[in-house]
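About this split. The held-out portion is used to measure sequence recovery: a designer receives only the structure tokens and must propose an amino acid at every position. Recovery is the fraction of positions where the proposal matches the reference. Here is one held-out target exactly as it appears in the evaluation file.
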């Protein structure tokens, strides 16, 4: 097995703990009926999927969601809904990302996400210390910029090519079984974690304990 050079983290469900029910409740409060049917914890559909895959802009999403809700929504309304997904960002996760970089690993984020979420995550509002996600990761790979969503092999190959590593030299953490299976099929080392769980000691044992 090749030694690990790059550790790729999913954002929602790994770095941040997700609360899909809260996002659905916020969406319902804006007037959308059966909001749960429009949201998914792993791979979005409809205009939510179009947004995360980069097929539509944030403004086109705002207009589309306004139509679905039957009322004119603002950009901030849309962000309020989508940030409902974020329950917390455990400090232990941020601490470990910083430690891994100090240990010499390339730390990257690989996320199915959208501009509304990243407006927050890439700002000092991300942590109480005023760090943004870009302060604790070497590179951030975003579905809406790449034009593909996990589990599409294209998004994994984009990371491998950009990082210039063999599949076996990358470890990928995700809370979605389909995403982990897709990465493993390409030869990438994987770790399936549960949303909200403390995976930090398990990861340290795997990559630091064997250095």
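Reference sequence for scoring:
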């Amino acid at each position: 097995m090749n030694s690990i050079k790059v550790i790729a983290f999913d954002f929602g469900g790994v770095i941040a703990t997700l609360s899909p029910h809260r996002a659905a409740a916020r969406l319902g409060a804006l007037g959308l009926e059966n909001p749960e049917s429009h949201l998914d914890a792993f791979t979005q559909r409809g205009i939510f999927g179009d947004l995360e895959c980069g097929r539509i802009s944030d403004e086109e999403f705002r207009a589309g969601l306004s139509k679905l809700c039957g009322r004119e929504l603002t950009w901030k309304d849309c962000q309020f809904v989508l940030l409902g997904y974020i329950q917390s960002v455990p400090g232990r996760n941020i601490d470990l990302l910083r430690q891994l970089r100090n240990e010499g690993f390339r730390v990257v984020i690989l996320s199915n996400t959208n501009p509304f979420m990243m407006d927050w995550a890439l700002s000092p509002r991300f942590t109480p210390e005023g760090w943004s996600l870009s302060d604790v990761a070497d590179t951030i790979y975003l579905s809406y910029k790449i034009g593909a969503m996990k589990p599409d092999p294209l998004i994994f190959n984009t990371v491998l090519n950009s990082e210039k590593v063999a599949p076996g030299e990358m470890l990928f953490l995700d809370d979605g079984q389909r995403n982990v299976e897709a990465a493993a099929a390409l030869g990438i080392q994987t770790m399936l974690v549960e949303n909200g769980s403390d995976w930090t000691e398990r990861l340290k044992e795997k990559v630091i304990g064997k250095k």
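Annotator remark: The mean pLDDT is 93.
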